[in-house]
Amino acid sequence: MTNGVERYVSGARIAERVARLAEIGGLPNGGMNRLPFTPEDRAARDLFARWLSDLGLPVRVDGAGNVIGRREGGDPTAPVVMAGSHLDTQPMGGRFDGIAGVLTALEAAEAMGAAGFVHRHPVEIVDFAAEESMGRFDVSMPGSRAMVGALKSEDLELRCRLTGETLREAMGSIGIDLSRLAAAERPLGSIKAVVELHIEQGPHLEEAGKQIGVVTTVAGSVRYHCVLEGQQAHSGALPMAYRRDALCGAAELLLAVERAAKAQASPPVVGTVGYMDYEPRSPVIIPGRVRMIIDVRSVDAAARDAVAADIEAAARRIAVARRLHLEWRLSSGFPPTPLARAVVDTITRACEDLGVSSMPMPSGAGHDAMTLGRRFPAGMLFVPSVGGISHAPQELTRTEDLEAGAKVLCRALCMLAA
Amino acid sequence: MTNGVERYVSGARIAERVARLAEIGGLPNGGMNRLPFTPEDRAARDLFARWLSDLGLPVRVDGAGNVIGRREGGDPTAPVVMAGSHLDTQPMGGRFDGIAGVLTALEAAEAMGAAGFVHRHPVEIVDFAAEESMGRFDVSMPGSRAMVGALKSEDLELRCRLTGETLREAMGSIGIDLSRLAAAERPLGSIKAVVELHIEQGPHLEEAGKQIGVVTTVAGSVRYHCVLEGQQAHSGALPMAYRRDALCGAAELLLAVERAAKAQASPPVVGTVGYMDYEPRSPVIIPGRVRMIIDVRSVDAAARDAVAADIEAAARRIAVARRLHLEWRLSSGFPPTPLARAVVDTITRACEDLGVSSMPMPSGAGHDAMTLGRRFPAGMLFVPSVGGISHAPQELTRTEDLEAGAKVLCRALCMLAA
User: Fold this and answer.
1) Cα(first)–Cα(last) distance of chain A, in Å?
2) Facing A270 at nearest CB: one of B135, B201, B240
3) Fewest CB within 10 angstroms: A23, A87, A190, A271, which?
4) Distance (Å, rounded) from C-alpha A59 to C-alpha A6?
5) pTM for the whole structure
6) Overall average pLDDT of the A35-64 stretch
7) d(CA B300, CA B308)
C-alpha cells in the first residue's frame, strides 16, 4: 500500500512552514542568519520538535544535537528509513538550503499519518545538527558525522572564527548533552536507507527544465588554510619596491585559485576563497599578514587534486617572488562520494511513477546524506534553485517544485519503509 | 642666546618617556594599540599633560582636543612658535610614530628651562589630537585641522569603521568639549612657525647614512572608496562560469593598484589597499560584496592623478568583464604641500651648527605640520626608521638618533623663538 500516500502532501503547508522558520533569524534583505548553535538555531529546532509532536510522533535529541522524530513501523527492530536535512543556515544565507529537506520530510510523515500508511520499517525524520558549521568552525556537519562515528573529540575543541568559543561550548550553549555523544553513533546495519531532499544550489535543473535531480555522486572537497606573512608598513612612506604586502600576495593567490579551477573544465572543478582575514585593517597601513581558506571541489578526485596542486604551486611561487612567508595546511576534506545505487534507483522510480521530470546529476555541495553514506545506503534528490543562487538572501525554490519534491520523497520513503 | 641650550637635551630621558608611553596600549608583540579617542589615548594625553606641568608649564586642552603646554616669551602677544606631533597610534602601530615628535618637543622645552633660555616669542608644545584618526574614521588629523579651520562639522558625524560611533561621540568620550571647537582655530599671523619632528617611516635616511632629513615637501594623497557588488552563491554548487565573485574582482583591482603605482617610477607614486571588507565571510560562500579603500600618494600631483586615473579605468574594466556593479568615490585628498622655506632653512642651519648630517627629502606620509602649513609657516625634520618600517610593531628609531633630532629641534626652536 505505498501508492497514493503522496496525495496528502501539501505544497502550501510546506511554504507556510518555510515562512514561519524564516521569521527566526531573518534579515531585512530576505536572507537568514541562523548560525548553528545560536539562540536562533535553538528556536528553529524547538519549533520543528513541536511540529513533530503535533503529528503525534515521539521526539528525541541525541547526544550530537540531532532532533529526531520517529514514526514507528510494524517491526520496531527493523532497520530505520531516515529522511531529513538541516535547519541552520550560513551567515546571510537563504530560506531553503537544508530547510526544504527537513520540511518535505516532515510533510512526508504528515502524509503517511493522514493516509494511515502501514509499514514495517521505522521512519525517522531528522534535523541533522549544524550542517552549516563550516560557517563558524573548521568542521562541517557534526550531527551526521556523529551518527557514523566521525566526529572526533578534538573537533569539539575547534574555535569559532566569529566568537572564539569552542564547538563544545557552542553545542552546550543550546542544551546539547555531549555526555551522550557516543550513543548518537548508529551501528552498521541499523539504517536501511537515508534520503535527503535538498535545493540544487546550482543552475542545471532550471536550465534543463527538470523538476527533480537524482544525485548520483557528491563532489569531494578539500580545504586549505593558507597564511601569507610579509611586513606591515606605512602606506605613504614606504616605496613600492621595498614592500612585502601580504594582501597583494593574497590577491595574486586568489586569482590563481580562480584560474586553476577555470582551466579544469571537464570534469569540472570549482575553487573559491570565501574567507580571508588580514591585519591590521587600516587604510594607511600595508597589510602584514593574511589568512585565507581555499575550497576546491569536484566529483573527480584526480581533477580536484591536480587543481589543488596547481594552487599550492602558485602559492609557493608567489611567496618566493614577493618575499612572503607561507604556511599551507590541508584542514579538511571529503572524497567524492557515490550514492547508493538502490536508493538512487528508488528515487528515480518514484519520479517515473508520479510523472515528475527528473535527471541524474552530481552534487557540487556536500550534504549530511554524503556523510551518512560512509556507513549507510544514502540517496538525495534535488529541487531547482531559481538562478542557481544559494547561500544568499536571493535563494528561492518555487512552491510547486517543493511540492513535487515532497511527493517524490514521500513515495520513495514509502517504498523503502514498506 | 640661542646657543648651547641643546646641551641640556637628554636622549636617555626621551627613551625613558618612550618606554613609559609604550605601557599604555602596548601589545605583547611590542606594537601599540592606542587608537585615537580611546581610554588609552586619554591616558597618554594625561601623562603628557603631567610632564608639561612638571616643567612648570601651564597646560590647556582646546576645543578640538589638542593638548597644549605653553612656555611664555618676553612678548606674550608675539606670534607663537609651535612644536609637537601626536601620541595616538594606528592599530598594531609602533612606539615612535608621532610620539618621537611630542617627546622631543617636550625635551626641547625642558632644555630651555634648564638653560634659563630667554626668548621673545611664546613656545607651545602640542599633542595634536588624533593624527591617526584615519585608522578609525574617514578623516585624518582633526586636531591640526581645527587649528586651521578645516575640520568640518559634517566630519564630526563620520562613523568609526570599528565601533560605529561618530567622531563627535568618540571625542566626547574622552572629555573633549566640542562646544569650544571654533575657538581652537588659530588666526592668520598668530603662529610664527610650526616645527614637527617625525620618524621617517621609509628607508632613505638609513640608506644614505644621514641622521636628519629636512622635509621640503609633503606628498599629496587621494583616497577612493570602492564597492564591487556581484552575486553571493554556494562555493561548491555554482560552476565557475556562472560566478560573479566580488572578491575575485577586488583581487584583480588590488593588483591593478600595485601595478599602476609601480609603473610610475619617477616621480614616484605609491598605491595601497590597506582596508578591505567583504561579505558574508564564510569559507563556503562566494563573496557577494567588497568595499575597499585605495590610497594613492606622490609629491607630484600630476603623476599621482595619472596613476589614480589608471586605477579607476582598471576598476571600470574589471566591473564590466566580471559583471560586477561598481561604486567609485573620492573620499579625501590633500594636495602635495611644499613646506615654508624660512623654517626649512632654519632646520638646515641648526643641523649645520650642530654638525649633524642631514639631507633634504620629501615626506611620503601626511603629518600635522602639513595641515598647519595651509595657514602657517611649517617645517619638519625626520629621524631614521630602522629598516624603513613604520605603522608596525617593529617600528624603531635609535636613541642616539632621537637625541640628535631633539638637539636640532631645540636649536631650531630657539632660533625661531628668540
Assistant:
1) 8
2) B240
3) A23
4) 23
5) 0.94
6) 98
7) 12
